[in-house]
Amino acid sequence: MATNGENGRHQEVGRKSLLQSDALYQYILETSVYPREPEPMKELREITAKHPWNLMTTSADEGQFLSMLIKLINAKNTMEIGVFTGYSLLATAMALPDDDKILAMDINRENYEIGLPVIEKAGLAHKIEFKEGPALPVLDQMIEDGKYHGSYDFIFVDADKDNYLNYHKRLIDLVKVGGLIGYDNSLWNGSVVAPPDAPLRKYVRYYRDFVLELNKALAADPRIEIGQLPVGDGITLCRRIS
Ligand code: SAM
Ligand code: CA
User: Fold this and answer.
1) Ligand 1 pocket: which residues have CB below 6 Å?
2) Which chain residues have CB less than 5 Å from ligand 2, an ion?
3) What's the 231 CA to ligand 1 centre distance in angstroms?
4) Could you give the C-alpha distances from 23 to 28, 31, 196, 207, 226, in angstroms and in order?
5) Which H helix or E strand runs over 81?
6) Which pathway is it part of (predicted)?
7) What pLDDT, in 10s, does the model give residues 159-189?
8) Which domains does the chain have, with CATH numbers?
9) In 34-55, which positions are buried (b, 16+ CB within 10 angstroms) versus exposed (e)?
10) pLDDT digits (tens, 9 = 90+) for 80-118
11) What is the mean pLDDT of the chain?
């Protein structure tokens, strides 16, 4: 892992946390997260750890946070954009009451199918409607239909960062007043404050500008209240107020 010296903070991709030290993050995981992690989530986390793109998965502490959040707001109708092997999807499915639903979208069905047996074994597959393909046209179709305005309690966005603002334009219509949208990776590996000459990986550098633009736009959007949390790689919660 690369660090920038003195305070041991990371600069490079490879960490799941923005905390001061690895030891502190490990402490959180071992003390508060892993002992309470439901068995299916543990199983899916271990399966995903063997995937070559395992860096994309939601971290266990963020999974625990999402689960708590969904219960606190009493969410029923939810959406997820960006599923990968389904760790955050499973956290959502476990937190929702039995007759509630998740519309889950990803361009890659193969990865979703890696986690699907775990979701099925946990008896949760009936809550999920998975759509393979880019999310944007699905959102456009839903808006055109007119049936889905203000119908979502919770929407978790964890996909192509260069489309987050395009998602926001549509999701603000689909989430209900009082409902929440969570934009994940909103601190983008800490790169939002990296100096211009910082040795960032290519894809970190590319998406960074979109994340910076998103954060500014959300902070200036009068239709929402926001909360920026340093959980995982940063999540910005947006509560629709008008
Ligand atoms: N939430 C997931 C988890 O808990 O493991 C992680 C999602 S991963 C960071 C990002 C996902 O977004 C990838 O699986 C990728 O295939 C998907 N994706 C990328 N572009 C997309 C698009 N235009 N529409 C829907 N999904 C997309
Ligand atoms: Ca993420």
Assistant:
1) 56-58, 81-85, 87-88, 105-108, 111, 134-135, 158-160, 163
2) 158, 184-185
3) 18
4) 9, 12, 29, 28, 30
5) strand 77-81
6) Aromatic compound metabolism; phenylpropanoid biosynthesis
7) 999 999 999 999 999 999 999 999 999 999 9
8) 22-240 (3.40.50.150)
9) eeebbebbebbbebbeeeeeee
10) 999 999 999 999 999 999 999 999 999 999 999 999 999
11) 93
Work out the burial of residue 162: count CB atoms within 10 Å of its CB; fewer than 13 is exposed, 13-18 middle, 19 or more buried. middle
Residue 242 Cα to ligand 2 midpoint, Å, equals 27
Nearest to 82 by CA among 21, 151, 156, 152: 156
Closest-CA residue to 73 (of 217, 240, 199):
240
Closest ligand 1 atom number to CA of residue 156 = 1
Query: Which ligand is located closest to the Cα atom of residue 163?
Result: 1
213: amino acid identity, one letter: E
